[in-house]
Amino acid sequence: MKSRIRRTLFTYIGIITGLLIASGLTVYLGGYQSGVKALGLLQENLEKSRLMFSIETRLLTLSTPVREYTVNLDPKQQETFDKAVENYTELSSRLAGMSGLSSEERQSLKEIDGLVQNVVQTGDLILGMENPGDSSTDMLRVMDTLAQIGVQKLAQINDTLQSRGQTEVDGALASAQTAQIFAVGVAVATLLVALFLIQRFTGNVVSGVLQSSVGVGDASTEILATVESQANAALMEAASVTEISKMLIDMSDAARQIAVNSGSVEEIANQTSETAKTGAKQVTDAVSYMERIRDEINEIAEKISYTGQKSIEIGDVVEQIKSIADETHLLALNAAIESAAAGEYGKRFSVVAAEVRRLAERTREFTEDIRDIITEVQRASQASVQAVEIGKEEGEKGASVAREAGLALDGIVKMTHKTALATKQITLATKQQQLSSEEIAETMREISNVLNESAEEMGETRAITYRLNEEATRLRQIV
Length: 479
Description:
Blueprint lengths: L1 H59 L2 H10 L3 H22 L5 H25 L6 H208 L5 H132 L1
Helix pairs in contact: 1-3, 1-5, 2-3, 2-4, 2-5, 3-4, 4-5, 5-6
């Protein structure tokens, strides 16, 4: 029943709307277009009148430069005259190109152009004279006469155009008035049809309302029961959503605490990584220093070996010196024997021989001492070489251990870097989880608010349903 009434109402509204649109279109097509046409005609007539007036003015002033030339013989007046003729020609061409001119009017314009050509030729003749006299006065009169004739013809054309234009404007205005009268008639007819349809629709609606009031009462009772059930369910859902929101808030706080702790772990991992990097650098420096010490030990060993070699060579030299000292001692002994045999003449030589023998003995003693010292030096060199070899081996072991420590620290650096990255990912994940939890909690709060509002609206709906039931009862009583 309700849908049938709605369809009937929409049908009547559609008919009335169609009639109103038809009347509106009639007003637009009849009145507006006719008014626009009349306005266009008025503008076109005004443009033609303004152009006619400009042509008449130019035509009457064509002789002015020529007259000035006859008075002061100024050659510049030729240029002024040519410019005036050019302006007239331009205006005349514009007028001839306008629409709405009859063949007679266009023929009159050609005659006016012929008069103007005579005026121009006469003006050129006067401007070409070096000493214009009385003949120029007569020629000026001819120019003025021809100009007056042209102006009269233009005035006749203008009057004809204005008369015809006024007739066209009056016709357009009459059409607009006719369209307005027709539109008023259509509007009156539309109102009469609308009144008839409204009267018919009212009778149908009253009978329909009487039938629907009973259905409204029954439906309102069912709606009331449904609304109460939905309101109770909405309240229960709101309570559940509130509890879920609290749980999500707690989970968000836990995620925030995890994120804080993860940030601390990440910071510690970064510090550990930096410390390990520093230790690795120091170990690398230590390995470098040990390698340098090893190189220096090798160089010292080479120098000590070189020293032992040289001490052996010195021992050989000392043995040669000892041998020479022994031979010198023998020679000194022989010299002492020879000096004793020489008697008085060999005393001085015996003193020298004694000194040489004493020197040889001292040299032999010194060589013994030097040989003992060289022996000690050789033993010390050998011990130094053995100590250097042991130090070199220990240095190699220390460098190897330092390298292993450097590799271990590099591994620690890589592991701490991975730990830092993993911790950062955990931190980001927990922060995202926190944000997601907060968003879900906010969404749950909004859902809870919506459910509470729905419960309140259902309460209002219940009250409205009570009133609807009461109104249906009163409607049945009234009808």
